[in-house]
Design goal:
single chain; alpha+beta; Alpha-Beta Plaits; 2 domains; four-stranded antiparallel β-sheet; 4 helices; 4 strands; about 45% helix; globular
Amino acid sequence: MERISLTIEKNLLKEVDEIINKERISRSEFIRRALEYYVKKYDWLSRIESKIGEITVIYNSKAVEDIVKLESQYKDIVIISLEIPFEGKIIRMIAIKGQRDRIIEFTNKLKGISSVELAQLTTISIE
């Protein structure tokens, strides 16, 4: 195995430490698992052209206008979206269907909106 050095935000490290204490694993094992998950997900996403899925977005009310505008720009892949207020934030579930690159582009633009805390893509392949 190779050794690497890593610099992360203090808050993120605190969250990692909470997880590793619950899971009873080392930081190294946690990071190894996270990297394996990311690589597998990236590899899987890169091999499939057409997808159907859902994007979960968590944000505050400042982002509503930007998200609605972005959805209209991607109406070729957005099937429907549902907005749910929850504990002072908004959770939006966006059903999507289309080409992989277009979906990834849309997801990345959602992530780029300043008031968006999370934009998580979940997809399945269309055979």
